């Protein structure tokens, strides 16, 4: 097995970024902000300042989604740059995750919505009639994302595992355990009611936090960090969208 010390640089960089993630006190401080504008202004004074700097009271749902996707892609890009070269394809593959619902929608026979054209960074090629250009998607490395809707998550996961470097099998265990934990959560979350959904998310975040510290100097730590980022972005999206809709109702 190659020495895990080659992940020392990765761990140092993501440890610093982990320390900057919002804590429960940050979320509680913002809980009383009723409007989108107030939330954004107050968030600019804390751990979320880097994530909300592109938003304002005038941001609509598409602006918010576009900005949050960009934050996710930027985090994936940065971590991908920090890991050893052999692991970079597997980390880079995570950039597609937010698009699986959209691609599943298309796979069920629906056209791509027009707003896709306003965000070329998506990497989802749309023909003039709204149909997904599958050849163009394949050309940018998305061949696994042309699977039928019901098999799309499995196709994404199979491709992700295929991208793990074969000469690092001794490090697969940590990543497999992390993936299994997230998958179990996803299945439980899909069946959970509104009264238990958030507690399940909190439990997952705590497990990921523990895995991040336990699996240092392994690729699993990088994946755990990005999973934590994804949970925080999901929570931020819910907070922003709720207030954007509330503000819209107030204006109406």
Percent of residues in helices comes to 55-70%
| SSE-based structural type | mainly alpha
Number of strands: 0
Total helical segments: 12
Radius of gyration equals: 19 Å
N-to-C span: 63 Å
Instruction: Estimate the strand proportion.
Output: under 5%
Element string (H = helix, E = strand):
HHHHHHHHHHHH
Oligomer: single chain
Number of self-contained structural domains? 1
Low-confidence stretches: none
Name the overall outline: globular
Task: Give short descriptive properties of this protein.
252 residues; mainly alpha
Descriptive notes:
The chain has one domain (4-98, 147-251). The protein has twelve helices and no strands. Helix content is 62%, strand content 0%. By secondary structure, it is an all-alpha fold. Helix 10 runs antiparallel to helix 11.
What is the secondary structure topology, with strand pairs?
Layout: H1 8-19, H2 24-30, H3 36-43, H4 49-52, H5 61-82, H6 88-92, H7 100-107, H8 134-139, H9 152-162, H10 172-191, H11 194-214, H12 219-251
Helix pairs in contact: 3-12, 5-12, 10-11, 10-12, 11-12
Please summarize what this structure is.
This protein has about 250 residues and is mostly helical. The chain has helices at about 10-20, 25-30, 35-45, 50, 60-80, 90, 100-105, 135-140, 150-160, 170-190, 195-215, 220-250. The radius of gyration is 19 Å and the shape is globular.
């Amino acid at each position: 097995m190659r020495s895990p010390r080659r992940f020392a640089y990765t761990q140092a960089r993501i440890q610093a970024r982990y320390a900057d993630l919002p804590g429960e006190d940050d979320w509680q401080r913002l809980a009383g902000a009723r409007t989108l504008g107030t939330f954004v202004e107050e968030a600019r004074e804390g751990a979320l300042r880097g994530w909300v700097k592109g938003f304002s009271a005038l941001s609509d749902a598409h602006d918010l989604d576009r900005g949050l996707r960009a934050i996710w892609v930027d985090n994936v890009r940065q971590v991908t740059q920090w890991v050893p070269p052999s692991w970079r394809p597997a980390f880079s593959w995570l950039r597609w995750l937010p698009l699986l619902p959209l691609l599943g929608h298309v796979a069920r026979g629906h056209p791509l919505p027009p707003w896709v054209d306003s965000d070329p960074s998506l990497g989802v090629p749309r023909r003039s009639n709204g149909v997904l250009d599958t050849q163009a998607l394949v050309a940018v490395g998305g061949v696994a994302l042309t699977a039928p809707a019901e098999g799309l998550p499995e196709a994404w996961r199979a491709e992700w595992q295929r991208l793990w470097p074969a000469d690092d099998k001794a490090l697969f265990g940590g990543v497999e355990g992390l993936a299994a934990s997230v998958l179990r959560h996803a299945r439980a979350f899909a069946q959970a009611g509104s009264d238990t959904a958030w507690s399940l998310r909190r439990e997952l975040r705590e497990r990921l936090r523990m895995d991040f510290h336990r699996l240092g100097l392994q690729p699993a730590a990088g994946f755990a960090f990005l999973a934590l980022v994804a949970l925080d972005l999901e929570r931020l999206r819910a907070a922003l969208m709720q207030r954007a809709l509330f503000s819209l109702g107030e204006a109406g």
